[in-house]
Amino acid sequence: MTEREIIEILLVCEDQLECAGLVALLSKDRGISIVGDTPSVAVAQRLTSSLKPDVILCSERALSHQTIELAEKITERSEEARPVHFIVLLSSLDDQGIELLRIDRCIVLDRRMSSAELIAAIRITAAGYLPVRSDLAGNLARASVSLKGASAAAGERVRNLTNRERRVFELMIQGLSNPEIAADLKVAESTVKSHVQGILNKLDLRDRIQAVIYAYEAGLVGVRSN
Fold first, then answer.
1. How far apart are CA 63 and CA 77, in angstroms?
2. Which residue, of 106, 132, 158, is where some domain finishes?
3. For residue 50, what is the domain's CATH number?
4. What is the pLDDT of residues 195-209, one digit of tens each?
5. Contact of 203 with 157, CB cutoff 8 Å
6. Which alpha helices (H) appear in the chain, and where do they start and end?
7. Most-buried pick from 49, 117, 120, 221 (CB within 10 A)?
8. How do residues 101-120 score in pLDDT, each as one tens digit?
């Protein structure tokens, strides 16, 4: 997907003052257009059908089941030619947050991020990328594994990786970038890219964020006790 000239955004924000602040902030950027706003998740679903935004920006203090359901419905019905991306701003994270990271084109960000970071994240998201920190996924995955226990099936699939792929996978879930992995293994960055794609294909994963979650579920990373 190429970056759009104007990114159309639908705001879903329960706090009226915060909503006004986000409108004022985002409206200053010439490349962003606020096509609608609502405090209701239910209304957002109807507005998405009529307004057809590029991005739904949802801000919540605590993640609700309704928001997760909305993200699932929106991304399922999203047209491939013009996909709708779902960004959720959260001030606190719990085990529910991992459900958002499992949904295609759904992003989780910190509500405390700066204005410049938010605008950059919106642009990156609209361009088809996932601006989610690996440590955030790791925190969510730790919470999930502590409640559910490691998945035996996930661990079994990891055994299908070659020794080199497993090493690359271990470095990936530590948060290392491709250049950093290449330096650690003393190989070309193109080789690392090839290994990463092979790992994602074998494990049926979409991206590095899902790889971090998968690693915790497979029991490859120790779970911290609370």
1. 22
2. 132
3. 3.40.50.2300
4. 999 999 988 887 777
5. yes
6. 16-27, 41-51, 65-77, 97-102, 115-126, 134-148, 152-158, 163-172, 178-185, 189-203, 208-217
7. 221
8. 667 777 778 787 888 888 88
